[in-house]
Amino acid sequence: MLTFFNDRLDKQNYNPQIRPLIDQSHVLEVTVLFELVSIVEVNEVTQSFNCNGFLFFNWTDEILAWNKTDNVDNGIHPLPADIWRPRVILMNTLEKRDLFDDDKAPVFVLRNGTVIWVPGSLFPTSCQMNMTNYPFDQQTCHIKLVAMSHDERELQFRALYPYARNETYTLNGEWDLLKTEVRTETFDASYVNLSSIQVLFVMKRRPTFFLLNILFPVVFLSFLNIFVFVIPAESGEKISYGITVLLAISVYMSTVSGMLPRASETLPYVIIYLFILLILSMITVICSIIIVQLHNMEE
Questions:
Q1: pLDDT at 7
Q2: Phi then psi dihedrals of residue 131, to 5 deg
Q3: What does the pLDDT read at residue 178?
Q4: Best CA proximity match to 141, nearest among 125, 152, 155, 127
Q5: What region does 56 belong to: left with phi over 0, alpha with psi -120 to 50, or beta?
Q6: Are 120 and 36 in contact (CB under 8 A)?
Q7: How many C-beta atoms lie closer than 10 Å to residue 243's C-beta?
Q8: H-only helix segments in 146-237
Q9: Are 85 and 44 in contact (CB under 8 A)?
Q10: Domain end marker among 167, 189, 205
Q11: One domain for residues 227 and 141
């Protein structure tokens, strides 16, 4: 088997830089399947998305195919660097673009020439988010993979399923995964068209933490503004009570602002709500000052 393997991958017979087709005028079709393992992070401030997953690439290597008479097992396991692989880059990455350049992921070659390559990685990407309905928002992030080694006339991606498989998916505590979608596209790179595949993730935020720790306390604080008019003017606590409520709302507003991106096309409704409460609290403090002043003038 070792002799057979060495003969097949001999440099005179096999060049890992050339598509593994006997007729180079044909298009090489690469089937892609994405297996989602977990959603690592969705960061609203940096507008980034990170997930953990595996990619299953499948194509036919006509040069490596063999017959039953060769007395070789049904499959061999060469090193990834020894055979042809599509060069795949992550277009919307925040870190390393060529994710699988030094990959040591397993490669399986079957007797009929079918090659299965299974690289896995973290996919840190940029993700433009709409924070208008925060924390009841729904976000769509994606990863875009492009075949850089050959143009679309030589290599084409094909999605095995129109969705990402999630049999090994681990639930995320902050986000519910509503659906996934896998689709192939053409990437226009100036003078050449490249085959690309895009994996979309539609997620909905779980708002329980925000409601219990931020929103409900702020709503309760807003009701405390009403009681500033119940406190007698002669008690001396009317103004200090209103200022205390005003400062508490300011702290919550600062906390929420730290959770959101500074540059946003739309202003979240929760920020508008907190700003209105802040204005109302300021008005109650001003009214309290006027009431105390009038009370002192009467005395």
A1: 60
A2: -100, 15
A3: 94
A4: 127
A5: beta
A6: no
A7: 17
A8: 208-210, 216-224
A9: no
A10: 205
A11: no
Sequence-distant (6+) residues with CB within 8 A of 244 are none
Q: Which helix (H) or strand (E) holds 17?
A: none
The total number of structural domains in the chain stands at 2
For residue 88, count other CB atoms closer than 10 A to its CB.
24
Same-domain pairing of 217 and 198: no
- Which residues, 6+ apart, have CB-to-CB distance to 74 below 8 Å? 110, 111
Range of the domain at 172: 1-205
pTM, rounded to two decimals: 0.83
Phi, psi of 222 (to 5 degrees): -65, -35
Strand blocks (E) in 148-240: 155-159, 175-189, 192-205
Instruction: Give dist(CA 5, CA 22) in Å, integer.
Output: 19
- The DSSP line for 121-133 is EEEEEE-----TT
Return per-residue pLDDT of the chain as tens, 299 residues: 555 566 666 655 777 788 888 888 889 999 999 999 999 999 988 889 999 999 999 999 888 777 665 555 666 777 767 788 888 888 888 877 777 766 677 888 888 888 998 888 889 999 999 888 988 999 999 999 998 888 888 999 999 999 999 888 999 989 999 999 999 988 887 778 899 999 999 999 999 988 888 888 888 888 888 888 888 877 778 788 888 888 888 888 888 888 887 766 778 888 888 888 889 888 888 888 888 888 777 66
Distance CA 106, CA 297 (A): 87
C-alpha 206/C-alpha 278 separation (Å) is: 26
**Residue 177's CATH number:** 2.70.170.10
- Cα separation of 179 and 183, whole Å? 13
Q: Count, in order, helices (H) and strands (E) of the chain.
A: 5, 11
Residues 142, 199: contact at Cβ < 8 Å? Answer: yes
